[in-house]
Amino acid sequence: MTKLYADEALYALLCKYVLGEADIAERQWVDDWLKSDTSHPVLLSALEKLLVEQPRLAVTAADTERAWQSLSAGMGGRVVAVSRWRRWWMAAAVLLIAGATGLWLAARNGRTQRFTGPLVAQLKDGTTVQLEDKARLLVLAGFGISQREVSLEGKALFDVTPDADHPFIIKLGERTIKVLGTRFMVDAAPGKNGALRIHVDTGQIMVMGKGRQDSVVLSAGMLLEQQNEQVPFRIASHVADAAGRELVFTDTPLSEVLQTLEVIYHIHVTADEALLQLPVTASFTGETAENVLASIAFMTNADMEKKDTTVILKKHEE
After folding, report:
1. Are residues 264 and 221 in the same domain?
2. How far apart are CA 173 and CA 188, in angstroms?
3. Residues 269, 258: contact at Cβ < 8 Å?
4. Are 121 and 160 within one domain?
5. Residues sharing a CB contact under 8 Å with residue 129, sequence separation 6 or more, in sequence order
6. What CATH number did the domain enclosing 296 receive?
7. Collapsed DSSP state (helix, strand, coil) of residue 200
8. DSSP string of 65-119?
9. What is the CATH number of the domain that holds 143?
10. Total count of domains within the chain
């Protein structure tokens, strides 16, 4: 529904809905409104308790008429129309519910929300966070009003709604991610010495280390790893899918290719200086490190040797 109601009109309409006095069009609007936000049914339930679930007395029409006549006499013979009284009652109900709802919303916005995976958290600004098993997300008080700040432990996929005036901030212990609007994965182990892994699908993010002395901007296809907060970030690029080890290189210097392989496969690779600037065009999905290196050695006309934990690419001698 695109039609908007002022607060007073909304509460009056909800009162009619609860009391069974709304027409077909009004009931349809309220039904759509209930589906548009998970907090709306909670508000309607509170209203129903206030208006409907109070103890009632069996009152006949004659009792009602005698009560109105008595009230009229007590007011000096002035006749009070039932319809006018009903408007007064409705206005009082609107003010009461509006006040109660204001306090409810203030309490809702003033508390920290906690989510534990696996689930998809829908945040107030439209951002979605897909939490994996045991991941924990804290949405700090005041989110969507004065700031957009959360904290995370575990693995989650973020799809952040753009808002240049209110950057999206993710706290990861003493590390921080600053976002303007993008889709990316974060895997942050708990604790100060927890490992960190971030992969960006679209857009750009800034990752700041402890004390913000170490910072880097990641764009689409880039992967960041850090074993703990005491060591520098390690960056890979040309990563289409980090989990599936999908790598796409297009005229990419061999030096960049080897840097990516080191981060993805946790290996150490060196090459002759004469090979490092050679362009590589290739795609790999789910391949082992040995298969990828063998393919690259073939494309660059290099010989591959392994010494201890290091792989060495040497220019092939004819």
Report:
1. no
2. 9
3. yes
4. yes
5. 115, 120, 121, 123, 137, 150, 156, 157, 158, 159
6. 3.55.50.30
7. strand
8. HHHHHHHHHHTTT----HHHHHHHHHHHHHHHHHHHHHHHHHHHHTS-EEEESSE
9. 2.60.120.1440
10. 3
Q: Which of 52, 53, 17, 51 is nearest to 33 (CA)?
A: 17
In this structure, are residues 88 and 12 in contact, taking their beta carbons and an 8 Å threshold? no
User: What DSSP element (H or E) covers 184?
Assistant: strand 183-188
Q: Is residue 2 part of a domain?
A: no
Structural domain harbouring 61 = 7-109
Q: Is residue 1 part of a domain?
A: no
CB atoms within 10 A of CB 212: 11
> Do 229 and 246 lie in a common domain?
no
The two structure tokens encoding residue 59:
């009152």
> How many H helices and E strands in the chain?
7, 19
Q: Is the peptide bond before 118 cis (omega within 30 degrees of 0)?
A: yes
Instruction: Give the pLDDT of the chain (318 residues) as one tens digit per residue.
Output: 333 333 456 667 787 788 777 788 778 888 887 887 777 787 778 777 666 554 444 445 555 455 445 544 544 444 444 444 444 445 445 445 444 444 444 444 457 788 998 999 999 888 999 999 999 999 988 887 778 999 999 999 999 998 888 899 999 888 899 997 789 999 998 876 678 999 999 999 999 887 656 789 999 999 999 888 778 889 999 999 988 999 999 999 999 999 999 999 998 999 989 899 999 999 999 999 999 999 999 999 999 888 878 889 988 776
Which residue, of 68, 94, 109, is where some domain finishes? 109
Q: How far apart are CA 233 and CA 213, in angstroms?
A: 12
309 and 249, same structural domain? yes
Q: Which of 184, 204, 236 is the last residue of a domain?
A: 236
pTM of the model: 0.61
